[in-house]
Amino acid sequence: MPYRDRPSPKTNLLLRSVTEDCFERWQSKLRWIDFRAGWSFYAQGDQITHALFPVVGVFSMVMTLEDGETVETATVGREGFVGFPLALGANQSINAAIVKVAGGGYTLDASSMRTELLRFDLHNQSLFWRYTQAILAQASRMTGCAHHHQLEQRLCRWLLQILDRVDQPVLQLTHQVMAERLSVRREGISTVAAALQEAGLIRYSRGRLEIVDRKGLEQRACECYRGVINDYRRLLDPGLFKAPKN
After folding, report:
1. What angle do CA 59, 64, 67 make, to 5 degrees?
2. Which is deepest, 27, 120, 129, 220, by most CB within 10 Å?
3. What residues contact residue 183 under an 8 Å CB cut-off, 6+ apart?
4. Per-residue confidence (pLDDT) for residue 26, from 0 to 100
C-alpha cells in the first residue's frame, strides 16, 4: 500500500537521533520503499546491501533451522532499523527480515552507513551500538520466553510488541502467521485466541484482529514484554513505547 503522504525520515527514532551533520549527509541518499505483509527485505545468509529504517509497519527477524522450522528472534519498527549487522561492521544477515505489518520506510546503502560509522563520531557510534545491544537483548529474552512461558503469555506479549509500533489497534494477522512466528501449531493459536476473545481482550474475524483491552493483555503477558521495553528505554530513549491514554 503506497503512502502518498510519506512520513518524515525523522519519524524513525534512529534517524531522528543521529547528529544533524550525519543526517544531512544521509538525507539525499535515503530512498522510500513500501513493503507488504509477508515480504522479505533479505533472506537468512544474504549479503546486506542496504539498511532499512521503518517509519510505518513492523518487521520480524526470523531464523530458519535445518529442519525447516522458523523462530522469530526480534521485532523491529520505527524505533530501529533492519540490517543491524552493518552496525558491527558485518554485511551478511544471520536471519531473514520479514514484514509482519505492512508499511513503508527509508533505505540507505550499506556503504554510506559504514562510512558514517567509521568517522569516529562517538555519538553516532554509541547510538547504533546501543541499538544493536537492544536487539540482542530482545533475542535473548525471546529464547527464554519460548522455553519457559505459556502460549497465552507469549501471544499477549507478541501482540503488544506489534501494538507498540503501530498507531491503530486493528491488525491484519492470520492464525497461521501467528503460529509461524511463535513456532507453535496453528490449533494452539486458535485455542488461545478464542480464549482471549471470550475474555473480551481481542476481537478476531477472518484475519482481522482488533485489540479491545490493552491493559488486559498486559496483565496476561509474560515478563519478557516489560523486560524488552525496559531494555530499550535504558539503552535508547526513556520515552519509548508509551501506551496511548484512553
Report:
1. 155
2. 220
3. 69, 70, 71, 72, 146
4. 96
Q: Are 219 and 179 in contact (CB under 8 A)?
A: no
The strand pairing partners of 52, in sequence order, are 82, 107
Q: Which of 6, 3, 90 is nearest to 42 (CA)?
A: 90
Going by C-alpha positions, the residue among 103, 97, 55 that lies closest to residue 72 is: 97
Q: At what angle do helices 151-163 and 223-235 cross, to 10 degrees?
A: 30
- For cell 490449533, the residue is 187
Torsion angle of C-alpha atoms 171, 220, 143, 162, degrees rounded to 10 = 20
**Beta partners for residue 171, in sequence order:** 209
* Residue 246 confidence (pLDDT): 47
Distance between CA 100 and CA 178 in Å, rounded? 10
Alpha carbons 34 and 222: distance in angstroms, whole number: 33
Phi, psi of 194 (to 5 degrees): -65, -40
Residue at grid coordinates 530513549:
237
Q: Determine the Cα–Cα distance for residues 239 and 226; give it in Å rounded to an integer.
A: 14
Determine which helix (DSSP H) or strand (DSSP E) holds 105, and give its type and residue range: strand 96-109
Confidence of residue 242 (pLDDT cuts 50, 70, 90): confident
133-145 burial string, b = 16+ CB within 10 Å, else e? bbbebbbbbbeeb
Q: So what's the pLDDT on residue 206?
A: 85
Q: Domains of the chain by range and CATH?
A: 9-144 (2.60.120.10), 150-221 (1.10.10.10)
- Average model confidence (pLDDT) across the chain: 93
